[in-house]
Each structure stands twice: as C-alpha cells, then as structure tokens.
Write a structure and sequence with these properties.
Blueprint: H1 2-8, H2 10-22, H3 33-50, E1 53-58, E2 65-70, E3 78-84, E4 104-106, E5 115-117, H4 125-140, E6 147-153, H5 161-169, E7 178-181, E8 193-198, E9 200-209, E10 215-216, H6 227-236, H7 259-265, H8 272-279, H9 292-295, E11 301-309, E12 319-320, E13 323-332, H10 338-351, E14 358-367, E15 370-371, H11 377-390, E16 395-398, H12 405-413, E17 417-419, E18 435-437, H13 438-460
Parallel strand pairs: 3-6, 3-7, 7-17, 8-16
Antiparallel strand pairs: 1-2, 2-6, 4-5, 5-18, 8-15, 9-13, 9-14, 10-12, 11-13
Helix pairs in contact: 1-4, 2-4, 3-4, 4-13, 5-12, 11-13
The structure holds ligand BES and manganese (II) ion (MN) (2 copies).
C-alpha cells in the first residue's frame, strides 16, 4: 500500500520539490528575508495537506521556525524530525550551468536516472522534503506507526542561534524519543552509510591594520609594515611543518581515537586516486600520520575561507594598504570546545602580531562536534531500514561537516540524533551546480517509513 502510494505519486512528489526549490530562501542575505518566509509558508501548506496538526510558524528575531506534529497515541514513541529550509547563497551565479532557483532535472554519470540541479536541492530542502512526503505516504495509507513532530528552521546556514533559544524554551513541546535528520550523505548509491559523527566549528574574522590610510607603495614601500604581508605571514605560521595546527593548547582536548577504531574506519571504501582525480590535484595534503579520511573526520582543521584587502580591481594600482582581512574556520572534533578554541586562537593571534600592526579578532558562530553511538534503538532501526531499502548493510562513517544543533538536542532535550542522510559528496552542496539524485530522493522517501516502523517495534520490546 505504502509503496504503491509512493509510486503513484512520484510525479507529484517531484514537482512539489521543484516548486519548493524555486523559493530563494537564502538566510545569510537580508535581501531574501521575504523569500525565507515564503519557504516557511510553503511548508506550512504542505504539512497541512499531508495531515499534520498543530502547525505553527514560530517567529524569531531572525527567520521563522515551522513546527507541526501528529500524535496518534501518547503511549507510542515519538520521532522528532529536524531539517532546514534555508540555503546557502547561490553566488557566484556565473558558475552555474542553469539558474540556481529554476530547478532542472539532468542525467549525470553518477546519477543516470537524473538529478535535480538547484541551490538547496540536497542541502537541505530536498532532504527535508523527503520527510514531509514519507509522512504523507504513511498517514494516507494508514501506516504511521508512532507519533511524529516536525521542526524545520530557516537559519541553519547562519548558525541556528534562534533555534537554540526556541529549543531551550520548548522542551515540553519537543519531548520525543529520538531526533531524525536527513542533512548528511552516503558513500555512494550502491554503498549506503550512516553518519555517526560531525565536527564542531569555531569561526573567526581577523582584521590587521597598518598605517592609518592607504599609502603610495613607492614613497612608503619598504619603510612601513604592509598589513597584507604581515597577515599572510601570520596565517602561514598557523600550521607547522608536519601540517599540524600551531596554536598552543589547540590539541589539548582532542579525543584520541583507538587503533582498533581507526582500523575499523579504514574499511570504508575510499580510493585516493579517484579523490585526487575528481579534484584535479596531484597530491593531497594535511596532518602527518593520518589518512585523508581521518584528516577530515577525527582530526581538527584550520582553513582560511576568504582573504582580502588592498587593490583588487583591473590593472595595477600602486598602493600600500591600510588594512587586511581574513575569515578563518576551525573544524573541531568531539571533546574540543568551540569557545575555548576561539579564545586560544584570539590570544595566540594577538601574541604573534608584531608591534608594527594592530590586530582585531571577531568571533562568528560556532558549535560542538558529536559522535553517535551505534548500539541504541535509533541506530539499529536506521541500519535495518537501510538494509531493507538498499539491500546492503550501511557502513558507519564520521563526517567532517557540522550541524551545531545536533549536540544541542542531546544537551537540552536529552535526545540522540540519527543522521539518516542520502546526499553524495559529489552533489556539491554550497557550490555552483548543487544537485540531488532522483534515486536518492525516492530512496529517502522509501527508507524513512522503514525507520519509523523499526524504531517503534524496537521501543515496544
Ligand atoms: N548539511 C550541512 C552539514 C553537513 C553536510 C554535514 C554533509 C555532513 C555532511 C550543513 O547545512 C552545513 O552546511 N553546516 C555548516 C555549519 C553551519 C554552522 C554554517 C558547515 O558544516 O559548514
Ligand atoms: Mn544542511
Ligand atoms: Mn549547508
């Protein structure tokens, strides 16, 4: 029945997602505020049509949170579904092969059945919409085995600050047995996996000031410190010759992963040559003594995300700039604390600043890392669901990305999260030509009801 309903409604499920993707719900840019609200209203309407109750668009200081639920029996377990309907800015537009907000379905070598190209197709509108459609299918065919609560936010890509406030203020409303999130990925369409770890994040902006104004680089060059030269040197010193981060105390709290666990992790299929070929790089780089997968999951990292200052227009302008700037992200591993790391960074950066310039460090949003156990009913239910839908047992994998609200669910609601994502790394989330496979979208819609069923059964026993 359930399967038939999904099959029969394939076109409808796809077309609704395409409509959803036309909404330009970019949370970072105030210009799109009304569009983000439109995204919330779209969800409100679709949740209503699917049969959800107590639907509410909760206003915040930023973008709204959409809440809805369906309580069929207070004695039954409750799944709390979280997702985000905001997206990253689509810039640079000129690198897209089609309009980021006018979705098109195209075949690719990795997605022979077609993929939807649009900003948010995979991260996270496509993946969160799978939950709305899976819920509709379960309810309309009398197959909803437990209670469900939906919480969809419009600020994940800018740090979820208001969601944190909402969660802290609504612990009773959000009472559940597990959190279910589809905002991560699988290894490949024929290699299912479940994300069991996320990294934390500390994000700072630095400003280096030299002379009080831009100067003629001939008249002053050589005699006055150039803030761009100095900033470059300071940034270069943040890694040592072994590729490790060179900030005193940075590794103090890093959780050491056992040899056995590392051996287990190394079993996940990964081809370094394919990886290099895909990125068109001759070699990988990183911390000595760790594999590429380890470097991007169980080890912290530090990267400049943007750097600017001085003259960057056409031609040449001979100028010794007054200021230089950079945005720097540090990905953290479980047990590191983002505030502590931000402080360590700030102190260190001030300490290494020569007296010829001034330094200002401004912290942005942050969040903590998380590891998800593989021996509780939520994980077992997800594993069994994937075994049924993919016909293969999923591999537990730690990811390098961050979803700061996940550790908050544990801290504030005492709930573990299942990261049942269906995206691929090659879906290029956050980049031009982001896409999401039709196979993945429908595999998600097929797998989610299996999770509900397995989880309810496991909880009953
Ligand atoms: N969905 C991603 C995170 C992700 C993607 C985790 C793939 C694991 C696998 C999320 O929307 C995201 O982009 N998070 C941000 C952090 C946020 C604070 C801006 C990130 O990781 O950069
Ligand atoms: Mn996301
Ligand atoms: Mn994202």
């Amino acid at each position: 029945m359930l399967k038939k309903y999904i099959e029969k409604n394939q076109d409808k499920f796809l077309n609704e997602l395409l409509d959803f993707l036309k909404i330009q719900s970019v949370s970072a840019d105030p210009k799109f505020k009304d569009e983000v609200l439109k995204g919330a209203k779209f969800l409100e309407e679709k949740l209503q049509a699917a049969g959800a109750e107590n639907i509410c668009i909760h206003e915040t200081k930023g973008h709204p949170i959409v809440y809805a639920d369906k309580i069929i029996d207070k004695e039954l377990p409750t799944v709390l579904v979280y997702g985000h309907y905001d997206v990253q800015p689509a810039d640079p537009y000129e690198l897209w092969d089609s309009d980021p907000f006018d979705p098109v379905v195209k075949k690719t070598p990795i997605h022979p059945h077609g993929a939807i190209f649009a900003r948010g197709a995979c991260d996270d509108k496509g993946q969160m919409y799978m939950h709305v459609k899976a819920f509709e299918a379960m309810l309309k065919t009398n197959n909803l085995p437990c209670n469900v609560k939906f919480m969809f936010e419009g600020e994940e890509e800018v740090g979820s600050a208001n969601l944190e406030t909402f969660v802290r203020a609504n612990t009773e409303l959000l009472k559940a047995d597990v959190v279910l999130v589809s905002d991560t990925g699988i290894i490949a369409n024929d290699t299912p996996s479940i994300c069991v770890g996320l990294r934390g994040l500390s994000y700072v902006e630095v400003e280096v000031t030299g002379p009080n104004r831009d100067l003629h680089s001939g008249l002053y060059g050589g005699g006055v410190a150039n803030p761009i030269n100095i900033l470059s040197k300071m940034i270069a010193s943040l890694h040592d010759e072994n590729g490790a981060i060179n900030i005193p105390g940075f590794y103090n709290d890093v959780q050491v992963v056992s040899k056995e666990e590392r051996k287990e992790m190394a079993k996940a299929p990964f081809d370094i040559h394919d990886y290099q070929k895909d990125l068109e790089i001759e070699d990988v780089a990183g911390e000595n003594g760790f594999s590429t997968n380890e470097r991007t999951s169980i080890r912290p990292s530090l990267d400049v995300n943007g750097i600017w200052g001085g003259y960057i227009g056409d031609g040449a302008k001979t100028v010794l700039p007054s200021k230089a700037y950079a945005k720097i992200s540090m990905r953290l591993v479980p047990n590191q604390n983002s505030e502590t790391i931000t402080k360590l960074f700030t102190n260190h950066f001030n300490k290494i600043a020569p007296s010829c310039i001034k330094v200002k460090v401004t912290p942005h949003h942050g969040g903590e890392g998380v590891v998800i156990p593989t021996d509780f009913p939520g994980y077992m239910a997800a594993k069994k669901a994937m075994e049924t839908s993919f016909g293969k047992s999923p591999i537990p994998v730690r990811s390098g990305g961050s979803i700061p609200i996940v550790p908050m669910f544990e801290e504030v609601l005492g709930l573990k999260t299942i990261l049942l994502g269906f995206g691929l790394d090659s879906d290029v989330i956050h980049s031009p030509n982001e896409h999401f496979g039709l196979f993945n979208y429908f595999k998600g819609i097929e797998t989610i009801p299996l999770f509900y069923k397995n989880f309810t059964e496991l909880k009953k026993n």
